[in-house]
Design goal:
160 residues; mainly alpha; transmembrane helix; DUF2798; transmembrane; membrane; DUF2798 domain-containing protein
Length: 160
């Protein structure tokens, strides 16, 4: 886990990239019903704006309250590292899914013009995204990004 603000920013950049890329592909697949080169192209074309939105949400809105929630209700500073990782990850995924599902709904409304359906699109996207995002975060993205992060930035190498 990151030890200071610089490490936290680097970690967030990596994690957002991994999660937004995967979830972008997943959402395009869910809306088109097929996996093809066109799916990858559409997901990749929507990626930059989704990534910027996710970074802003993560860094400015979600991170602080999610960590406070995790350390108040789920874990203590004395908890094992794995318990802290799981507690903070779960606390981050829930609000990020809600916000990014809204972003996806807005993006769909821009493309289709179905603004009167935004609320329904958003509400139906939340459970679909949650069932993919939480396991992906806990089982694949989290371990992958933590491993890559620590290999690239050994503890104590990124100064505060």
């Amino acid at each position: 886990m990151p030890q200071n603000k610089r490490e936290s920013l680097i970690y967030t950049i990596l994690m957002c990239f991994c999660m937004v890329f995967w979830m972008s592909m997943y959402n395009v697949f869910m809306h088109t019903g097929q996996f093809s080169i066109a799916t990858l192209q559409e997901g990749w074309m929507g990626f930059p704006f989704a990534y910027i939105f996710a970074m802003i949400c993560d860094w400015c809105i979600v991170s602080g309250p999610a960590k406070k929630f995790a350390f108040r209700f789920l874990v203590t500073p004395e908890s094992s590292v794995i318990k802290k990782v799981i507690g903070v990850s779960c606390s981050m995924v829930v609000p990020m899914v809600i916000l990014m599902s809204l972003y996806g709904g807005l993006e769909m409304c821009v493309h289709t013009g179905a603004w009167n359906r935004l609320g329904m699109i958003w509400l139906t996207n939340i459970p679909k995204n949650f069932i993919m995002a939480l396991p992906f975060q806990l089982l694949i993205a989290g371990p992958l990004v933590r491993t890559l992060f620590r290999k690239a930035f050994p503890e104590g190498k990124v100064l505060a």
